[in-house]
Design goal:
- With 298 residues, the chain is an alpha/beta fold.
- It folds into two domains: 36 residues; 252 residues, Alpha/Beta hydrolase fold, catalytic domain (Rossmann fold).
- The chain has ten helices and eight strands.
- α3 crosses α5.
Length: 298
């Protein structure tokens, strides 16, 4: 009888020890989970300086849960004929991009506008480069992956195309969206304008180009397309008084010749401001699909 009682006591003690060990394991589990870092919160930084000029600034929208191995960056480039405009003109893109692409970072940039003492080219192309260089150098601090998509309207589309086709030697840019961007300044639409040469002289810093350069050709993205150009999505109006449809067609042909993935859509109307709601909705759908394909979050 005593032996049975002793055996029962030993079994009970063993069971209690198992319960105690199990309890210790369960108690430790939440502590281990608590040691995991919390996902980063969304952050907005306005008017971040990237140069000494007051116009060299951008707004930065960093998404929640970003990391430096998957959070890619969309850069918005405004229009305004290279002499006017502001990043505020692109503000309507931001909420739509945040809804459709919540895991991308968004940059809405200004660049130094051209005037009688400050030429546009190549300075404005180089401003895009400065933004990309700054973001790349801060990738760990910002927790972003320095792969970029450019979305430009009008003059901003021209700047975006030219930057990718000429200046992006490291292939940091993975896609370009061109909305009514001038692409070929050798087009008769421009060269037959008696004021075109005067405008060209005001916009181009001739000292930044080799002697004898044909400036109209040198700053025409459609004439700079190569096998290393990024996938491009193009949107033009069939009655645009500022950028002829022929510019879109020339660019489309150059992309086809160089076997660059691209999309070309023509809407009824002018320079985008009179496009129908259905056309604008279609643009957003096509652009979103293009981003998902060529700037995916993996």
């Amino acid at each position: 009888m005593k032996n049975i009682k002793l055996l029962l006591l030993l079994v009970l003690a063993f069971q209690l020890s198992l319960i105690s060990c199990s309890s210790e394991i369960n108690d430790n589990s939440p502590l281990e989970m608590d040691d995991e870092p919390e996902p980063l919160a969304a952050v907005t930084r306005l008017n971040v300086s990237y140069g000494s000029h007051m116009q060299q600034a951008y707004d930065l929208y960093l998404p929640e849960g970003r990391t430096d191995d998957h959070t890619k960056v969309i850069i918005l480039v405004h229009g305004g004929g290279w002499t006017a405009g502001d990043k505020a003109d692109m503000s309507e893109f931001i909420p739509q991009l945040q809804i459709n692409h919540p895991d991308h970072a968004i940059v809405n940039m200004n660049y130094v506008l051209a005037n009688t003492t400050t030429p546009a080219f190549p300075n404005q192309f180089l401003d895009i480069q400065r933004v990309i260089n700054k973001l790349t150098s801060e990738k760990e601090e910002l927790q972003i992956l320095p792969e970029f998509g450019l979305i430009g309207t009008s003059a901003g589309a021209h700047l975006s195309l030219q930057y990718d086709y000429v200046y992006d030697t490291t292939n940091a840019v993975k896609m370009v969206c061109d909305i009514v961007g001038p692409s070929d300044f050798t087009d008769p639409f421009y060269t037959n304008d008696p004021n075109f040469n005067i405008l060209l002289q005001l916009l181009v810093d001739e000292s930044a180009y080799p002697s004898g350069t044909n400036y109209a050709e040198a700053i025409s993205p459609a004439l700079q397309v190569s096998a290393s150009s990024s996938p491009s999505i193009l949107f033009y109006g069939d009655q645009d008084p500022l950028v002829p449809l022929s510019n879109g067609e020339t660019l489309q042909q150059a992309l086809s010749t160089n076997m660059i993935t691209h999309s070309f859509t023509v809407y009824e109307g002018g320079h985008g401001d009179d496009w129908t709601a259905a056309s604008l909705a279609d643009l957003q759908l096509q652009l979103s699909a293009f981003i998902n394909t060529h700037l995916p979050i993996e």
